[in-house]
Design a protein that fits this description.
Elements (H helix, E strand, L loop, with lengths): L2 H5 L2 E4 L7 H14 L3 E4 L4 H8 L5 E5 L8 H14 L3 E5 L2 H5 L3 H15 L3 E5 L7 H14 L3 E3 L11 H10 L5 E5 L5 H9 L4 E4 L2 H5 L8
Parallel strand pairs: 1-2, 1-8, 2-3, 3-4, 4-5, 5-6, 6-7, 7-8
Helix pairs in contact: 4-6, 6-7, 7-8
């Protein structure tokens, strides 16, 4: 697998709360240069990036990030604003407390409303696997599929663990044919990227891919 194939599946990511405009511009330029699937940035930068780059860049942003426990109404408003500002992909964190309480109908309802707000744009659902049991992960696969969301995603990169091959295999068994898979967090080498793609991941969320594939080292996301 060549580097361009790997990079075409990467959401080139910078979600640090201290990210500067200079750093955001740098990853946007890299995303264009290396033809990554998207650039994933904080909502506060979406409007400025869209103004600066227009159609040259596929802009992804995050909703209810990283903890997921804001209200459904606030998540919908956050998504609608990001959509109006130029984002075309949205990575939303589920209400993890609802999962721990077994309130899976509430999660499905919230995700359905978010997918309706996103309309034809891509909605990726972060379930934050590191906090979940196997049974909870399986139940959430159904929530994501039933809501009409486009992707299930392993992690925020801010939790206690990142993507694992075991979780990808679990997703493939339970999420259904219409939901794609995104791995995020913990991928540190070129071999990691290839392994997750070979397991069926359509997207990889990482800030390290460009640097690793051009001879550098990984960071935390």
């Amino acid at each position: 697998m060549d580097n361009s194939t790997i990079l075409s599946k990467v959401d080139h990511t910078l979600l640090s709360p201290t990210a500067s405009w200079t750093q955001i511009v740098a990853i946007c330029d890299e995303a264009i240069q290396y033809k990554t699937a998207s650039v994933c940035i904080p909502p506060t930068y979406v409007k400025a990036v869209h103004k600066e780059y227009g159609g040259k860049l596929n802009i992804c942003t995050v909703i209810g990030f990283p903890l997921g426990y804001s209200s459904t109404a606030s998540k919908v408003l956050e998504l609608e604003e990001a959509l109006a500002n130029g984002a075309s992909e949205f990575d939303v964190v589920i209400n993890i407390a609802n999962a721990k309480n077994g309130s899976f109908d509430a999660i499905t309802s919230e995700l359905t409303k978010l997918k309706k707000a996103a309309d034809s744009k891509i909605l990726k659902v972060i379930i934050e696997c590191c906090y979940l049991t196997i049974a909870e992960k399986i139940a959430l696969c159904k929530c994501v599929a039933d809501s009409g969301a486009d992707y299930i995603k392993t992690s925020t990169g801010f939790g206690t663990g990142g993507a694992t091959i075991e979780d990808i295999r679990l997703f493939k068994q339970h999420v259904g044919p219409n939901v794609k898979i995104k791995a995020a967090g913990g991928m540190k080498t070129r071999e990691d990227f290839i392994a997750f793609i070979n397991e069926g991941c359509d997207r990889l969320g990482t800030s390290s891919a460009v640097r690793i594939l051009t001879g550098g080292t990984a960071d935390n996301y």
